[in-house]
Amino acid sequence: MSRTAHIVGWGKYVPSRVLTNDDLARMVDTSDEWIRTRTGIVERHIVNEGETTASMAVRAAREALQVANMKPADVELIIVATVTPDHVFPSTACLVQDALGATRAAAFDLSAGCAGFIYGLSVAADLIAGGAYKNALVIGSETLSCITDWSDRATCVLFGDGAGAVVLQANDADGGVLASILGADGSGGGLLYLPAGGSRLPTSHETVDQRLHYLQMKGREVFRFAVEIMPEATRDVLKKAGLTLADMSILIPHQANQRIIESAARALGVPQDVVYSNVARYGNTSAASIPIALCEAVEEGRIKRGDLVVCVGFGAGLTWGASAIRWSVPLPPAPLSRWKKAWYQLHYRYVAIRSLVRRFIRWFFARGVEE
Question: Strands 319-326 and 4-13: what pairing?
Fold first, then answer.
């Protein structure tokens, strides 16, 4: 029997600060009714002071590791899907690796827009199936509030911040990630992009004055692309897995817009109750939206052992992807004992101290070389 990657842990984190539609109506020319009818969004979460893409990713990853009852030192690969990294470099994944104390893990970021989590899941699952790794941590984390123009009502009503994570583990048993499909069409790159800050338009007084460090989107074109590609990608991944729509227990789409989600369900001919949606509570959190939705579907009892879960997303690039997953672990997960919870708390305190010590040692020896 072939080895596959199974989801054995999951976790999410959203900031405590909530921005409602009524809050936005006091900032720009909009209303709760206007936003709800066009997007289905009621509120979104925005980072508090000091929170970043990396810090949210760490919170989600810690929860996922605890659900998996896995020590960070056992993680061999960390992939963070994001378009809002803490820095251009080092990667956000490296910051997460350090904060977790995942000393054996390779780490890198992946940029595929809102389809980033599916891309990361596919890459990690294939590496596990190929024997390169036994365990992997895949995270989608975004601080979209930092690239949102809060004076533009066409875009500011859509986006929120958050993070979601899953732990993948090699297993020869039936189930796990059965198939994934990925796609891209770079000719649509100009439909959703961040104009400045890269090598083409480096940051300057001019790019800041022209507000080119905020995301730009042609909403109608993106909408049209999404309602076509989501059903197509769903059918393609089921075909690749040798399954049909009748086998699907739940569809977890990228949470961009309720109208897109409903249009995809109609195109597929599946009941709305088969399609999971939490866009009303979080808005579009880009690469974080699918793992956050997956976690909530589990928490709400919408997924059980043996279910066929299909995750599908689309995003900037243009990119798209879908994964068919046979859920193989019992639910709900076994609760951690008190001593194991205490171990995790002590571990992360030790890791923080160790990181500070290592930074100090590097600084000390670098200072000695300079002198």
Answer: unpaired
Asked whether the beta carbons of 321 and 182 are under 8 A apart, the reply is: yes
Q: How far apart are CA 201 and CA 150, in angstroms?
A: 22
Name the catalytic one among 114, 156, 295, 311.
114
Rounded Cα distance, 311 and 24, in Å:
30
Q: For residue 87, give the H/E element and its range.
A: none
Residue 200: both structure tokens together = 């083409």
Q: pLDDT tens for residues 57-72?
A: 999 999 999 999 999 9
Dihedral through CA 302, CA 303, CA 304, CA 306, nearest 10?
140
| Known active-site residue 94 | no
Catalytic, 205? Answer no
Q: Which of 321, 326, 323, 333 is nearest to 306 (CA)?
A: 326
Q: Assess contact for 106 and 89: CB atoms under 8 A.
A: no
With pLDDT > 90 as the criterion, what percentage of the chain qualifies?
A: 95
For the domain spanning 4-326, the CATH number is: 3.40.47.10
Q: Phi first, then psi: what are they for 242, rounded to 5°? A: 75, 30
Given the residues 94, 156, 284, 295, select the one marked as catalytic.
284
Query: What's the token pair of residue 92?
Result: 């956000």
Confirm whether 114 is a catalytic residue.
yes
Q: Which uninterrupted H or E stretch holds 368?
A: helix 338-370
pLDDT of residue 2: 81
SS3 call for 100: helix
Residue of 45, 156, 171, 254 marked catalytic: 254
The neighbouring-strand residues paired with 284 are 159
